[in-house]
Amino acid sequence: MTFSEAVFTIGSVKLFFLRGESEDFWGMGKVKIGGIIQSKQLAQVGVMSIPDQIGVPGKIFGALGEEGINVQFIVQFADGYGRGNTVFCVDRKDLEETLRILNCVQLSIGSGGVTHQSPVGIISVFGPHFREKPSIAGTMFTALGNAGINILAISTSISTLSCVIDEALLPEAVHAISEAFELP
Question: What pLDDT, in 10s, does the model give residues 84-108?
Answer without folding.
Answer: 999 999 999 999 999 999 999 998 9
